[in-house]
Amino acid sequence: MSAARLGLDALAVGLALSLNRWVRILTNPIAARLYERFPAGALVAVALALAVLSTAAYALPGWLAVFLGARLVWGFSWSLLRLGSLLSAIEGGTGRAGKALGEMRAVYGLGFVAGALYAPFAVESWGWEMACVVAAALTLGLGLPPVLLARRWRRGMEFPGADADRVSIWHPRLAAVFAVAALQYSLYSGLLAVAGGLRVAELFPQGGALLAVLVPATIIAAAFVLTQRLSQVLWTPVAGRLADRALPATFVGATVAAVAAMSGLALVRDATAFVAFGALAFFAGITSIVAVELALAHRSTDADRPRVLATYNSWADIGAAAGALGGGAFALAGTDVAIMAGATIAALTIPLWRFGSAAGLMRGGPSFT
């Protein structure tokens, strides 16, 4: 939907698109405190209500204050929903938290794909306002059954005597794992998508042969981005199972594969090979992300897990927001430079992981190396 049709100028559109991510840096810690003090099932219901209301409010883009306010509310709703999903997967995983985390991410991926398919057709068929109202109704209809299932979930109550057993989120080793998360999200949710799209435009301005079929550059770019969505939907359950079986090997192996894939992206000139290397980078990247989430699950207790995971979410949000900007900035020196910068950043996560996963992180617990 163009800015003109929404009645917004380009600056307002950029602000609206980024606002809910930046506000989550503030709302993620609030979500953690709420999950520590109140029944989790009730918080999930509140999050759904806020999501429905904020989505319906998008139907008023001409009322800029209302529109931006809805983005803020949605940011808070997502803080509650994402933290609740992580807690549910980890604590309900019955010894296989990696598998549960992977399946949770697959459901998220399906939602992203459904939204990407719904939006253009709905807007063109019904107009922006009705598309938003229907989206709000779908959010309510599809979200209500899980909310009803979770209504008795009460893990979020305060844990007596737990304060003495809490880990500091500023512990150097834990901060190193958070830094890994920020770098991962900056790459796989920002820099790689931006630099990859620019690389397609540079290499294939007149199109190229994709699986021996001549297609325009837009199709090559779409295929490249599609591999990211496929990794989120099809691969994350497998990634979770791999992490359950061999956590350190999964992280290191996936990261090495991602570095190799991004190096290939910077070197190849064939469209099919470019998309294939992009797929490997995204599949390996999401595997390493699931591994980090499982590592944090192992290194937190029921009492401090909301706070640890909320901090992880904030670092991830900062990384994703900075990654898109970084991709464009690096690309000023060349799209191959931007992609190789991504490969270098991915390689740097391995020593950070090694430091952060060493023994002695919390309460003398075992390492996950």
Q: What average pLDDT do the residues reach?
A: 87
Please report the number of helical segments.
12
Strand order of the largest sheet: 1-2
Terminal Cα span: 47 Å
In oligomeric terms, what are we looking at? Answer: single chain
Quick one: biggest sheet?
2 strands, antiparallel
| Helix content, binned percent | over 70%
Write the H/E string, N to C: HHHHHHHEEHHHHH
Shape: globular
Beta-strand fraction estimate: under 5%
Low-confidence stretches: 361-369
Query: What's the gyration radius in Å?
Result: 21 Å
Secondary structure tally: strands: 2
Tell me the structural class. Answer: mainly alpha
Can you lay out the helices and strands and say which pair or pack?
Blueprint: H1 3-6, H2 10-37, H3 40-57, H4 64-91, H5 97-126, H6 128-149, H7 172-203, E1 208-210, E2 213-215, H8 217-245, H9 247-267, H10 271-298, H11 305-331, H12 335-356
Antiparallel strand pairs: 1-2
What does this protein look like?
The structure is a single chain. With 369 residues, this protein is mainly alpha-helical. It is 78% helix and 2% strand. It contains twelve helices and two strands. It has helices at residues 3-6, 10-37, 40-57, 64-91, 97-126, 128-149, 172-203, 217-245, 247-267, 271-298, 305-331, 335-356; strands at residues 208-210, 213-215. It has a two-stranded antiparallel ribbon. Helix 3 runs antiparallel to helix 6 (128-149), helix 4 (64-91) runs antiparallel to helix 5 and helix 7 (172-203) runs antiparallel to helix 10 (271-298). The longest helix has 32 residues, at 172-203. It is globular, with a radius of gyration of 21 Å. The termini are far apart.
